[in-house]
């Protein structure tokens, strides 16, 4: 199989795929099965990927796409075909992840506790002033809803994945001859001289008869169109515009404070330490040592399996209520400061807990939280007022479907009118996915009726808009008179291009016969990779020219402005390996992309993949 990968690694189609396969299997959630006959989304070599796992993965991917594309993504998801393709891509990723997991098991790759510990301790996420910070580590895990064991599993899987990459995909190599060939072609230099024939100047010399214009128009009138045009009336309202209708009294503030006192307290905190051991016998032995007067911190350093807290005598740092598992906190809450618990069983391990210090819950006075309450009340009251006004506007828009005047009156705002515009000249005020969808895809343009309430703007500057099309002109072919100036320009340009090309080709023939009647500019050197990026059409023409021998070769090309260029190619020099070296890493990564894609394809070919078609069809029918 390794040999097969190497054979395929030169295919350019494979070189982009590796970047599309991520470490998602490390982060994939572990789903719980539904009760029923078939709770799977797919079975991969007998291993079930549950419908819950699929739903979780789909939700994560939807959230990612929505963050990137905004409401446009949800518009795409309204298309059943797109939704089905999206679901299939989620399923394919889950299958690929599971195949990679199973392949890692086949390779019998392993990871030690010390490797995991080292990876965590040296992670930049938990560094403070260049050193591992246990409090930062514990807080980060708590914020992520993870415990130390769960995070260690994630880190361990990441290490295993890296081992697979280095051990298998790292077998890829580039043959020196391949790199030499790439260097020669990509960094090939061509020394050219150019003579330019201005298209703009030639256009000025051209004339066009009435018959020529009419003939061109008759041939191309289907492409000579006036796009649909609109004049739109609209009314907008933002939450800020209703703020002046909201007044907050001291009585409201006091009432809110009394009703929500539980929110305005400094919660109790405990500084806890623990000793974690593997079984009850060890826990009881440590308990006896503590009763005999042995120092808790000393025993934690010597005995605790939680090596990260053990370095600090078992200290877990300060934590608010609800941070630790229920059994752990229940035992800690029963202790006074300085007391040590009996062994507490959690899972297959035992913990001995000590309360190092404790801060009680304290109520905050109204004066200290008044500003916060005012802001909260204002936000709630403005939101309620805004909802009321926009709801009344929507009612008015429905009851007075052919006018926005009554809608504007409800909100005490003005109806605004746009100048005439096309899809390409959409006014700034209307640039919103919800507006363009209803304006260009629905029947609003022809009906002249009011739209429903449209949410426009972003999360920080949301507005509600109602609009109606006051004037509409559908797309149509231009008449000859309307298109005449455009047609004349096209005819003259076409004739100018033909004349210049004929002139340049005649010059090429004369030059090839040794008649030099052309004044070329100074020599300039073009490098393929740079020229291809900056002027692809021109580069294609120049680098397709035959190499010169004892005399230059000549050809015709065009620049981006449409000017005709007469090209004299004087010299060709191949690129060197030294020029290729800066790109070596990129090409190596591209090869790894190829190999990984081929690995997944190979695993798929050998795998038993049983998709729950009924489940997938249900998803498709829901999308429709």
From TrEMBL:
Keywords: Cell inner membrane, Cell membrane, Chaperone, Isomerase, Membrane, Rotamase, Transmembrane, Transmembrane helix. GO terms for molecular function: peptidyl-prolyl cis-trans isomerase activity. The chain crosses the membrane at residues 12-37. It is a single-pass type II membrane protein. PROSITE patterns: PPIC_PPIASE_1 (PS01096), PPIC_PPIASE_2 (PS50198). This is Periplasmic chaperone PpiD. It is found in: Cell inner membrane. SUPFAM superfamilies: FKBP-like, Triger factor/SurA peptide-binding domain-like. One of its GO terms (cellular component) is plasma membrane. Pfam families: Rotamase_2, SurA_N_3. Its main location: membrane. Residues 267-357 form the PpiC domain. Coiled coil: none annotated. Belongs to the PpiD chaperone family.
């Amino acid at each position: 199989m390794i040999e097969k990968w190497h054979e395929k690694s030169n295919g350019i189609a494979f070189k982009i795929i590796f970047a599309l396969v991520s470490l998602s299997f490390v982060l994939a959630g572990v789903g719980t099965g539904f009760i029923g006959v078939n709770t799977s989304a797919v079975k991969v070599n007998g291993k079930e990927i549950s419908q819950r796992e699929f739903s979780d993965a789909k939700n994560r991917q939807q959230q990612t796409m929505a963050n990137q594309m905004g409401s446009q993504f949800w518009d795409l998801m309204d298309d059943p075909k797109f939704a089905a393709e999206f679901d299939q891509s989620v399923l394919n990723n889950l299958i690929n992840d599971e195949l990679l997991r199973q392949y890692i098991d086949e390779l019998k790759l392993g990871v030690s506790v010390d490797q995991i510990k080292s990876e965590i301790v040296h992670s930049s996420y938990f560094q403070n002033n260049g050193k591992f910070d246990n409090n930062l580590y514990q807080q980060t895990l708590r914020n992520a809803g993870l415990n130390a064991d769960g995070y260690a599993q994630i880190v361990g899987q990441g290490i295993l994945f890296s081992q697979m990459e280095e051990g298998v995909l790292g077998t890829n190599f580039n043959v020196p001859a391949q790199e030499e060939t790439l260097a020669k072609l990509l960094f090939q230099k061509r020394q050219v001289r150019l003579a330019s024939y201005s298209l703009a100047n030639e256009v000025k010399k051209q004339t066009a008869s009435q018959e020529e214009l009419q003939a061109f128009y008759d041939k191309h009138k289907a492409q000579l169109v006036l796009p649909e045009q609109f004049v739109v009336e609209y009314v907008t309202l933002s939450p800020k515009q209703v703020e002046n209708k909201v007044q907050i009294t001291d009585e409201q503030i006091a009432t809110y404070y009394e009703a929500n006192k539980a929110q305005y307290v400094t919660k109790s905190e405990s500084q806890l330490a623990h000793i974690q051991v593997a079984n009850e016998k060890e826990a009881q032995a440590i308990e006896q040592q503590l009763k005999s007067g042995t120092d808790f911190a000393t025993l934690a350093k010597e005995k605790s399996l939680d090596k990260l807290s053990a370095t600090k005598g078992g200290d877990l740092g300060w934590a608010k209520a609800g941070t630790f598992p229920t059994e752990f906190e229940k035992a800690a809450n029963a202790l006074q400061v300085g007391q040590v618990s009996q062994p507490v069983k959690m899972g297959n391990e035992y913990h001995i807990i000590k309360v190092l210090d404790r801060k009680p819950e304290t109520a905050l006075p109204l004066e200290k939280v008044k500003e916060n309450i005012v802001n909260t009340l204002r936000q709630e009251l403005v939101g309620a007022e805004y909802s009321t006004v926009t709801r009344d506007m929507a009612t008015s828009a429905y009851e007075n479907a052919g006018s926005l005047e009554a809608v504007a009156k409800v909100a005490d705002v003005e109806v605004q009118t746009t100048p005439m515009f096309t899809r390409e000249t959409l006014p700034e005020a209307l640039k919103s996915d919800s507006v363009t969808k209803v304006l260009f895809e629905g029947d609003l343009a022809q009906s002249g009726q009011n739209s429903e309430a449209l949410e426009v703007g972003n999360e920080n500057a949301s507005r509600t808009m109602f609009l109606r099309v006051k004037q509409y002109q559908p797309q149509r072919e231009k008449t000859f008179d309307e298109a005449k100036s455009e047609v004349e320009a096209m005819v003259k340009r076409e004739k100018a291009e033909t004349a210049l090309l004929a002139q340049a080709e005649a010059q090429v023939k004369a030059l090839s016969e040794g008649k030099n009647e052309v004044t070329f500019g100074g020599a300039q050197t073009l490098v393929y990779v740079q020229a291809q990026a900056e002027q692809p059409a021109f580069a294609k023409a120049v680098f397709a020219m035959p190499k010169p021998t004892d005399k230059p070769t000549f050809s015709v090309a065009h620049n981006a402005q449409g000017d005709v260029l007469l090209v004299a190619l004087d010299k060709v020099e191949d690129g060197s390996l030294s020029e290729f070296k800066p790109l070596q890493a990129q090409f190596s990564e591209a090869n790894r992309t190829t190999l990984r894609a081929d690995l997944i394809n190979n695993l798929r070919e050998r795998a038993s993949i049983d998709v729950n078609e009924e489940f997938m069809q249900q998803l498709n029918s829901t999308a429709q």
